[in-house]
Amino acid sequence: xxxxxxxxxxxxxxxxxxxRVISAAVQDAVLKVGDIHWxxxxxxxxxxxxxxxxxNGRRAERVRSALQVGGVLNVQSxxxxxxxxxxxxxxxxLTFEPGEAPGGCIVFEFAGGADLKVEVECLDLVLADVxxxxxxxxxxxxxxxxxx
Length: 148
Description:
Layout: E1 10-13, H1 16-26, E2 29-32, E3 36-39, E4 44-52, E5 61-70, E6 72-78, E7 88-98, E8 104-110, E9 115-120, E10 125-129, E11 134-135
Antiparallel strand pairs: 1-10, 2-7, 3-4, 4-5, 5-10, 5-11, 6-9, 7-8, 8-9
């Protein structure tokens, strides 16, 4: 059972099972297009987001978090306009499409059919909460499930 006093998350994904844990933690996070930053030189993608704290039980809270992906070779987007920096995206899931081992693509799946496909040398993703939590207006709901 989740505690009502869950502390900040700090998670590392180095394989698909780890990525599934992080995907559950960021389900229903919201972000602006301008919160997505790809640095070609250091081959790093950083995404700032407002994460719903599923692990905090019944208390409806969000927290500012950062996802950072290392070893990024390429980034492709679909239905995301870079110039619409203030447009809001709702993150549904993170998945991994294996490629030449240990590489592949991390896919950020957003509501409305948008996605971000991040080609990586290997799975190297970190999630960290970077602020105090605040009360959310409501908890996200899902038609086909009662929990994320």
